[in-house]
Amino acid sequence: xxxxxxxxxxxxxxxxxxxxxxxCQAQNSVALQYFGSLDNYxxxxxxxxxxxxxxxxxxxxxxxxxxxxxCTAACIDEAIFVTAARCIFNLKVNYTRVLxxxxxxDTLAFVVPSVPTKxxxxxxxxxxxxxxxTKSWQVINLFNGANRTDGAYQWFAKLDMFYGPMKYKVxxxxxxxxxxxxxxxxxxxxxxxxxxxxxxxxxxxxxxxxKAKILFRVPCYxxxxxxxxxxxxxxxxxxxxxxxxxxxxxxxxxxVGIATWGINYDKYEVPVGFSVVNSENFxxxxxxxxxIRDDKGSLDVKGYYQSLCDD
Length: 311
Description:
Elements: E1 2-4, H1 12-19, E2 22-26, E3 29-33, E4 41-43, E5 46-47, E6 56-60, E7 69-77, E8 80-84, H2 85-88, E9 97-100, E10 103-112, E11 124-129, E12 141-142, H3 154-157, H4 159-163, E13 168-176, E14 190-199, H5 202-210, E15 220-222, H6 226-230, E16 239-241, E17 246-249, E18 254-262, E19 272-276, H7 280-294, H8 304-309
Parallel strand pairs: 4-13, 12-18
Antiparallel strand pairs: 1-10, 2-3, 4-16, 5-14, 6-7, 6-9, 7-8, 8-11, 9-10, 10-11, 13-14, 13-17, 14-15, 15-19, 17-18, 18-19
Keywords: Signal
GO molecular function: serine-type endopeptidase activity
Pfam families: Trypsin
């Protein structure tokens, strides 16, 4: 993993994966995959409150203001938050604060994978904050019902079979659609939620249909099934796509994933991709975040936090 304390988190290998288009072989044809950025908007989502989701948080890139809002985050441990890694790639630690339970927390460090996935579609970032003597942290527990046993998400396709039924909801801070087109820092974000359908084929069936020969067989969510989308069901007009949006199982009340990518269309809404909180990178970076939080050493030595997490 890479740890940043007081400098821009810009890595050549990250920028390369964000801007390049990869080629992959599938069914004797060349497929182009593009995992785009989420535009932090919602359509017909349900307004909700921090009291219902006390572990939810906002990432703000300012030490003196409520703007600009950058993304949604979730508190998973004392002084540790997770969000989409691409949200924090270019933020400065000493400018960044987390607004959580009506309090601002200064950032101590970022932790992101040093070997990112293509265009960061499966990358979760960690934000470690200065604790301010907070005695009680409202956290959401992590989904622990499945381990990654392969790189093709076969384990995810069989999730219901091995874990049991799950009901999904996505929660995060979003604008209304079209307001997201106005590029000013004062745009207004409200906390909202949306019941969603989750499976391995929903992106592949809907996005591949819109973009011929493109494969998207990765975990995604949407407000309706692919079959309902094909029939222009009104449910499919709902949408919630924000960087760092928290995908939860409402039965177990656990965090299943973090929204990381999407493709935007003006005329209709399409699925959103997310990263499940069970990758090897995730747990490695989580350990690093806890080492940073618990350390009492001095920051006078350049690269100190990085040395804590080096294998």
